[in-house]
Amino acid sequence: xxxxxxxxxxxxxxxxxxxxxxxxxxxxxxxxxxxxxxxxxxxxxxxxxxxxxxxxxxxxxxxxxxxxxxxxxxxxxxxxxxxxxxxxxxxxxxxxxxxxxxxxxxxxxxxxxxxxxxxxxxxxxxxxxxxxxxxxxxxxxxxxxxxxxxxxxxxxxxxxxxxxxxxxxxxxxxxxxxxxx
Length: 181
What we know:
The structure is a single chain. The chain has a domain at 34-66 and 100-179: Alpha-D-Glucose-1,6-Bisphosphate, Chain A, domain 4 (2-Layer Sandwich). Helix content is 31%, strand content 38%. The chain contains 5 helices and 7 strands, in the order αβααββββββαα. The protein has helices at residues 2-13, 47-58, 61-65, 151-156, 158-179, and strands spanning 35-45, 69-72, 82-89, 92-106, 109-116, 122-132, 137-148. A 7-stranded antiparallel sheet has the order 1-7-6-5-4-3-2, with helices on both faces. The longest helix is centred in the C-terminal third of the chain and has 22 residues, at 158-179. The protein is globular and about 45 Å long.
């Protein structure tokens, strides 16, 4: 199975993203025609919480703690890295292929965004940025825009949005726990 994912990642390196608005999660307003996610939640406070949270994000631990299997083309998130997230059970497993489209690496802001690749049930982009405010509050900011790409996602209708909300909730919960050590 690992060999199959390695082949899939190799094939995805040549694939194009499945949406046009690459990097739009950085813009003040995101593209129309998509569902949007805006989440800004406190994870704790202080430099240690910030460093633990960013280490968990860049080590893919947030995704793993949220219940996903993570296979990537190498190391921490960086522009061009392919990641295949896997959800479900062995016989009912969903592959969720993405490419990291940008990273943020500032003293008090770190994160990345990935965009959807062929085979992803949605089309769009999701960004995760951890920020520390002047008062020391450490926050996770999740911004995403997406619309159904697969028949299953389209057939899911409003349930598809609930699944995305559930995944975002799991990311935030995992990162909160990981930020506290």
